[in-house]
Amino acid sequence: MERIDRQIVQCLQRDGRAPFRRIAEALGVSEQTVARRYRTLHSDGALRVRAQLGNRVAGTQRWFVRVQCRPNAADALADAIAARDDVAWVSTTSGGSEIVCVAFTGPGASHSSVLAKLPRTSQVLSFTAFAVLHMHVSSDTKWLAYDDPLTAEQIAALRPTHPDADAEQTPIRDDDAPLLAELNRDGRMGVVALARATGWPQSRVSSRLDELLSSGALHIAVDLAPPQFGFHADAYLWLTVSPGELDATGQALSLHPETTFSAAVTGSANLLVTVTCRNTEDLYMYVTSRIGALPAVHQVEVVPVLHQLKQSGTRVHNGRLVLD
């Protein structure tokens, strides 16, 4: 992976819908170069830009689920779980005998959720579900563990826009479904193409898209295949933190370049952090030097990822994103 490719990805992580022209200006290359390299990264399964519902969507509860299963059934069960629309971030851990995933439950579908299905699945020996109480999310909480990060001048030239954290979130309507479906497939799809695909007037697409993005009801996510960027050590860190220091510790960890997610959760380990490092030695150094330096952390369980089967909403095969 060349430096220009890594920098293009970093631009997209800061603004997934940034025009190629603006990315080119920030990086000092031609617009054609940016467009060509983006298409290559996409076709190679290194990245996918997609829209997803904001973190404050009413009535949706996020869970982290640890499933202990029969080792000879783990791969097939993990694949079946990854195929579900209400599940994300599916991986096998613990030598292949455990599956970790993110499940979403809503007020009207609890009986059909993966949490309701697991107790009736013969391959499952036991499972534990941890409710996410609070996620540490901001414009600065992104995985950015690159050797050549963007400069302050490049970020300023990119002019990333972020939703107003204090604004009232625009409700998702039933008639938004065609727009959301297209943006889930390609979060960079332009207004003209969206109008053609949905049958809406361009003015309606433009105004509704602006409403959803500016209020945080919808946000643009960038799914990455870290192995293609030289990062091969993913891990879940289950931390036990002093309750009074939980928020500050979670926020501090969320700002580390290696961190992909940080949230307060239910259970004896009250803070969950996911990290992606270059190799196991870097993971060791991260745990001992960065985690170990935090006085509020009393205990940490390090659970390395063996195989990643699904990112946020994208299937993964042999370290590459499987594009629709």
Question: What does the model show?
Answer:
This protein has 324 residues and is an alpha+beta fold. Among the domains are: 61-135 and 312-322, 2-Layer Sandwich (Alpha-Beta Plaits), CATH 3.30.70; 170-215, Arc Repressor Mutant, subunit A; 226-306, Lrp/AsnC effector binding domain/regulation of amino acid metabolism (RAM) domain (Alpha-Beta Plaits), CATH 3.30.70. It has helices spanning 3-14, 20-27, 31-43, 74-82, 114-117, 152-158, 177-185, 191-198, 202-215, 246-254, 280-291; strands at residues 47-53, 61-69, 87-93, 98-105, 124-135, 218-224, 233-241, 259-265, 271-277, 297-310, 315-317, 320-322. α2 (20-27) crosses α3 (31-43), α2 (20-27) runs antiparallel to α6 (152-158) and α8 (191-198) crosses α9. The longest helix is centred in the middle third of the chain and has 14 residues, at 202-215.
Structural class: alpha+beta
Count of strand segments:
12
What is CATH's topology name of the domain at 61-135 and 312-322? Alpha-Beta Plaits
Number of helices: 11
Shape summary: globular
Strand order of the largest sheet: 2-4-3-10-7-9-8-5
Task: Return the average pLDDT rounded to an integer.
Answer: 90
Question: What key phrases describe this protein's structure?
Answer:
Arc Repressor Mutant, subunit A; Alpha-Beta Plaits; 11 helices; 8-stranded antiparallel barrel; two-stranded antiparallel sheet; 324 residues; alpha+beta; globular
